[in-house]
Design goal:
By secondary structure, the chain is an alpha+beta fold. Helices cover about 35% and strands about 20% of the residues. A hairpin with a 4-residue loop joins strand 27 and strand 28. Helix 1 crosses helix 11, helix 5 packs across helix 6 and helix 26 packs across helix 27. The N and C termini lie far apart (about 60 Å).
């Protein structure tokens, strides 16, 4: 069936601020859907309150509504303009729940809006645990024994009937919120109370816990002719008992028999058909008993899911793009395959490589949190790696995580305590994968590890092979490693730094040089969706060690943009926004724009954004070989947060041009001593400070600069490890802990300006002129990290003298640091005196917020300035903001009920929203000001 021409305008509901359980994978899906609908000449509107995402940028949709995600906001949009249809399947659980609420209030009917991509009835069937269970029974699909409960009494009766262990699943929640396992009767009351409170309908499913069973997901698409295809099978490395968002996952499924897969596939199609007649995407989760291959259904989501982004990047099949075309009437055989451009979308991708996803946690930000993984999701981001084999992809994923690991072990960071290792195997946390390797290295038998972890033997045997290879490597020196064995090591994902560590007394560069002498270099393979059966037209690559290289270097002048790796607190989706704009600006400036990143949730890693995408770790060895192959004019490190910035020193050492501000000038800003010397020379005030390498020195410094003091390590992100201390005893504890967590680092001790106001500026410098992008005033006082503060644009209470000082200091520092591109400066204001706290010559967390508030494409401008193709005077910049914009931090404390909500110099927020107010009499603003100091802590 061709496109439904009655749909001329569509509203896409976004997912709101980033929280644990609902991150930027939905912004990726929403962005892709919007662009897909625009291709069809449809007018696209988006409602989303998140300013950090590219999804809410005017390059994505025709109308952007940065408003709170409420039915009232939606109704206001429907009054303002004609909307024919709403697509709620791209915004996660938030969008589905909002769509359902609007339906119940009669909003869609009142304004003649059709719901496309899903049936509202299907949302009810899948989210209502009892309705879902009954439907599965009716169609003959196995489910775990369970009962619904709306009260304590019903919950206790259910537990008595089913027996322990149990799982409690609240209805209509996100990322497993309020859910959990109950192993014994004494734990039940507390778990039931939490589940009933978490569900908006105070309803839970009390279910038999199939702990230790294997877990799988299938991604489906269906058109209005009822054609259904399976895009991807995903297997969880971790067995049932850990939320899929916290599980290491592998695609395609590795340990599934063909008979079991066919059975699962048939059941998934039957389930999708049973929940409604809609055309669009669907995610189904199953559990399989490893003893007899019995299959039970866990849940079905009638929307693009967290895994859909992963499946899209894994297969090269753009699920959200195709799902949105199906929602407006097209059938699968009428849509072009986006990768080959010669076949139709009515096909199931075939992979000749393996994908591994590893979640990224931030437990260090939640002191006192229960770090054990379970039914409630706790990770803040994820990485994806592509390799020819599972073990190659697994090691590449470990290198991508940004936790200072060189791969899976073999880097000197192993745990030698057998008690800690065995406890960690049984009680899964963020490091269980590494502990499995440590256990094997210490001689713990594979079968013992399998019994404790219940991880499939095939996965464990793959990891054990790494231990055997390491033992063999230790027999050699660098110059006598046989070439074929060297190739094997690289094919198994070993980095040069791991090989150097295992050999001892050699450097990473020496290993790199030796293998290049032997002709062992990375080659790049194309992601083509069809195992090379048809030629691909999309330049989307991963590396491996084989003969043929499929990535051909062009003659065009080119630039490489380094991405920001996995999302974590302090470095989130706002850097993806910057990377996308940087890529587009480079393309507009006549460059071939090349992206390097490993985050599957982002728009920057979509295959149609850059001229060339390398889905690779932002890890020195990988970046170096891409640069050697492509020979770019230079590398942009300003847009990928601290991840990309950390590459600057290596690039500088190897004579690779950094586009924009030089390494030395960036280092002046990062090095507290050099930066303070610069401020002194410029006669700009800054808090008294000192540097210490141990606790004794720290006490001397603190007494010189005066308590209270702010203690922090050098070169960190999101205030990691920062604390405010008020006496020698607390200082000693803080310094000992810091140097234990970050050995070899130096500790900076600043006098803390108590009861100061905090402000910040973002600016662009082209070497001659400086343009102030925005000045912001924080509502919270100095001492609360800027990422956790409500920032108001423009300032609301600063005097003209203070504003003039901020602008003057911003310009002075930009010129002194020879900035080419972006600069963010943090200030503290006390008694009308402006102090500079720090300067970051890169894209900041706040630039996307300012760009949205003022409706000016600042990253695009900054990139063209960095590249030297434009000066600031070439641009006409017109700000469009009436009143004020507030950047509101959003927290995920509900995932860690045992953690206090105190705020301090270490960032804890996971996302942000934007709120516009007409004036300072706004009641929301007045409440923020009233409560501003309440959570300030050390």
């Amino acid at each position: 069936m061709p496109r439904d021409t009655s749909i001329r305008s569509v509203l896409i509901i976004g997912s709101g601020p980033i929280v644990i359980g609902q991150a930027c994978e939905f912004d990726y899906s929403g962005s892709q859907a919007a662009l897909s609908l625009k291709e069809e000449g449809i007018s696209v509107s988006i409602i989303n309150s998140n300013p950090a995402t590219i999804m809410t940028d005017e390059i994505i949709a025709d109308h952007i509504y940065l408003r709170p995600l409420t039915v009232d906001s939606i109704e206001q949009i429907l009054i303002e303009q004609q909307i024919d249809a709403v697509l709620p399947t791209m915004g996660g659980q938030t969008a589905l729940n909002l769509c359902k609420e609007a339906e119940e209030r009669g909003v869609w009917e009142k304004y003649g809006v059709r719901v496309i991509g899903v049936d509202v009835a299907a949302i009810e069937k899948t989210e209502n645990r009892e309705a879902f269970r009954q439907l599965m029974v009716d169609i003959g699909v196995g489910v775990a024994n369970s009962r619904i409960a709306n009260s304590f009494l019903e919950g206790k009766e259910a537990a008595q009937e089913i027996g322990y262990p149990l799982v409690i699943r609240p209805s209509y929640t996100l990322g497993g919120s309020g859910g959990g396992f109950v192993h014994k009767k004494e734990e039940f009351d507390h778990a039931l109370k939490r589940g009933l409170e978490a569900s908006p309908t105070h309803e839970v499913l009390v279910e038999q816990a199939v702990l230790g069973w294997k877990e799988y997901e299938l991604e489906l698409l269906r058109d209005s002719n009822d054609n259904v295809i399976i895009i991807c099978s995903i297997e969880n490395f971790d067995p049932m008992g850990i939320h899929t968002g916290d599980s290491i996952t592998v695609a395609p499924a590795m340990t599934l028999s063909d008979r079991c897969y066919q059975d699962m596939r048939n059941q998934a199609i039957k389930m999708m058909r049973a929940i409604g007649t809609f055309a669009g995407g669907c995610n189904v989760q199953f559990s399989v008993n490893p003893a007899n291959d019995e299959i039970i259904a866990i849940e079905i989501n009638p929307r693009v899911s967290r895994s859909s982004a992963l499946a899209s990047k894994a297969t090269g099949y753009p699920i959200a793009k195709i799902a949105s075309k199906l929602a407006i009437g097209y059938n699968l055989d009428e849509i072009e395959n986006q990768i080959t451009k010669t076949t139709s979308a009515y096909f199931e991708p075939t992979l000749d490589y393996v994908i591994v996803k590893i979640p990224r946690w931030n437990f260090d930000k939640f002191k006192g949190a229960n770090m054990e993984l379970g039914l409630q999701m706790k990770s803040v981001g994820e990485v994806m790696a592509i390799g020819r084999t599972f073990i190659e992809a697994l090691q590449k994923a470990c290198q991508s995580l940004e936790i200072s690991r060189a791969g899976l072990g073999a880097d000197g960071k192993h745990n030698r305590s057998i008690e800690e290792i065995m406890y960690g195997l049984e009680h899964a946390s963020w490091n269980r994968l590494f502990l499995i390797k440590d256990a094997m290295s210490m001689g713990v038998p594979l079968e013992s590890i399998r019994k404790v972890t219940r991880i499939d033997k095939w996965f464990l045997s793959q990891i054990q092979e790494l231990v055997q290879l390491e033992t063999e490597l230790k027999r050699y020196s660098l110059n006598n490693i046989p070439k074929d064995f060297f190739v094997t090591l690289k094919q198994k994902g070993f980095s040069d730094i791991q090989i150097a560590y295992l050999l001892g007394n050699v450097t990473e560069d020496e290993v790199y040089d030796r293998r290049h002498e032997l002709g062992i270099k990375r080659v790049y393979k194309m992601v083509d969706t069809c195992a090379a059966e048809f030629s691909a037209k999309t330049p989307y690559y991963y590396s491996t060690f084989e003969e043929e290289n499929e990535s051909q270097r062009s003659d065009k002048k080119k630039v490489i943009v380094l991405g920001s790796g996995p999302n974590r607190i302090g470095q989130g989706i706002e850097f993806d926004y910057s990377c996308v704009h940087g890529i587009l600006a480079a393309k507009e400036s006549g460059y071939e724009a090349i992206m390097v990143n490993c985050n599957p949730e982002t728009v920057s890693t979509d295959f149609n954004i850059a001229d060339k995408l390398y889905f690779e770790p932002v890890f020195w060895e990988h970046v170096r070989e891409i640069i050697e192959l492509e020979n770019p004019e230079g590398v942009i490190v300003q847009l990928g947060g601290q991840t990309a910035l950390k590459m600057a020193e290596k690039l500088h050492e190897h004579g690779i041009k950094i586009i924009g501000t030089s390494y030395n000038d960036m280092d002046v800003a990062e090095d507290r001593g050099r930066f303070s010397d610069l401020l002194k020379e410029l006669e700009i005030p800054y808090p008294r400070y000192g540097v210490a390498e141990n606790a004794e020195e720290a006490i001397v410094v603190a007494n010189e600069v005066g308590y209270p003091v702010l203690v922090r390590p050098s070169y960190v992100l999101g205030g990691q490890g920062m604390s405010i201390v008020i006496n020698d005893e607390d200082l000693e504890k803080a310094v000992v802990k810091l140097l234990g967590d970050l050995p070899g680092n130096r500790v900076l001790i600043d006098h803390f300006l108590d009861r100061a106001e905090e402000t910040e500026s973002d600016s662009i410098c082209d070497g001659e002129d400086v343009h102030i992008v925005g000045l912001m005033e924080h509502i919270e006082p100095a001492g609360i990290h800027s990422g956790d503060s409500s920032a108001v644009l423009p300032p609301f209470s600063l005097s003209e003298a203070v504003i003039a000082s901020m602008e003057a200091y911003s310009k002075k520092i930009a010129h002194a640091l020879n900035v080419r591109g972006l600069l963010n400066i943090q200030f503290a204001v006390k008694d009308e005196k402006v102090y500079v706290i720090e300067a970051n010559p890169r894209a900041s967390r706040t630039v996307p917020f300012i760009a949205k508030a003022y409706q000016v494409p600042y990253i695009n401008i900054a990139t063209k300035v960095m590249l030297g193709v434009n000066k600031l005077k070439d641009f006409t910049i017109e700000r469009k903001l009436e009143g004020y914009a507030i950047k509101e931090p959003v927290f995920s404390f509900d995932k860690f009920p045992e953690v206090t909500k105190e705020l301090g110099p270490e960032m804890k927020s996971t996302g942000e929203a934007i709120r516009f107010i007409k004036d300072l009499e706004d009641p929301y603003f007045r409440k923020l000001v009233k409560d501003k100091s309440m959570y300030l802590s050390k």
